[in-house]
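User: I'm new to structure prediction. If I give you an amino acid sequence, what do you actually give back? Let's try with this one:
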Amino acid sequence: MTSHRHNGESESPGSTESTPRDGYLDAARECILDVGWRRTTLTEVARRAGVSRMTIYRAWSDMPALLADLMTREWGSLVAGRVDAATPPTPGSIADTVVATVGALRENELFTRIVELDPELILPYLLARRGRSQELILEVLGAAIATGQADGAIRAGAPAAIARGLLLAAHGYVLSAHTMVDDVVDESALETELHTLVVRSLQP
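Assistant: Good question. You get back a string of structure tokens that encode the predicted 3D arrangement of the chain. For your 204 residues, that looks like this:
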């Protein structure tokens, strides 16, 4: 979600160009899926990547820095893959994208593993600061809202503030939706409510 850039090999979220750094992040991802965050070390990442420990240490000073870059790549690619630049932004199209992105995040195996085993890793991005992935979402969402406003399809208001409000609402659907699913309300019903929330908040 957030970290300092360590060298010029870092790719922007959603980039399709593979680098040696991507291989190191792939190895870290495998480690976390296998044994969880607490048992993953830079030494183990190096072993799985087939490189020396110093190669990994030159890229990241510690595991939190590596995890931040891994989450940025994971969530950034997920978001970028669900944005259709060819579709004119309307309340409905933006709601479709928000619902699809929320669903994809909740089903993402890395996200699920972190929430199940090490939920404290997510807390800083909910309670203390925004991360790079959140900034990417706000940038994409804010741009879509501004374009929709110019076309008269979306209500007036500061695009940045509207985008942040929607992101705050989406946090609950990503992290807590399962607590609201039972015999009375299923997941599909909650997705419908999220879609309605987004549409109505954006309608002129």
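You can read the tokens as a compact description of the fold. Here is one thing that stands out. The two ends are 33 Å apart (CA to CA).
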